[in-house]
Amino acid sequence: MPAVTRKCIVQSCTNNSKDNPTKIFLTVPKDENRRNDWIRALNLIKITDNGRYTVCEDHFDLEKDSTNWMFYKIMGKKLMLKSDVVPHKNLEIATTTIGSQLTDSEKKT
Ligand SMILES: [Zn+2]
């Protein structure tokens, strides 16, 4: 598999899989309706093509937003989002706020 760097498409977010290898990156749904929901939620005007886009875990509450969080954590299964979930956290354009939310997953070694 070629090493593709995944980038978060949220405008105010700079996470990518190279700088943040422990972060989870979720693929924007291929289904057109779901994809449009995501685009609206993210305030993105253009994702017009069918390319592969990802949003990082910072914009979800994955423990609640996924259907199999425990399986994912314990057994390393592919994480499945609930069918009506869209990115909903940390979506504002960052202007003056810093370090609003720290989670366990951000602890560095
Ligand atoms: Zn992000």
Automatic annotation (TrEMBL):
**Protein name per the record:** THAP-type domain-containing protein
Q: Could you say which residues form the signal peptide?
A: none
The THAP-type domain, residue ranges: 1-90
| Zinc-finger keyword on record | yes
Could you name the domain of life of the organism this protein comes from?
Eukaryota
Return any one Pfam family short name.
Answer: THAP
Keywords attached to this entry: DNA-binding, Metal-binding, Zinc, Zinc-finger
User: From what organism does this protein derive?
Assistant: Molorchus minor
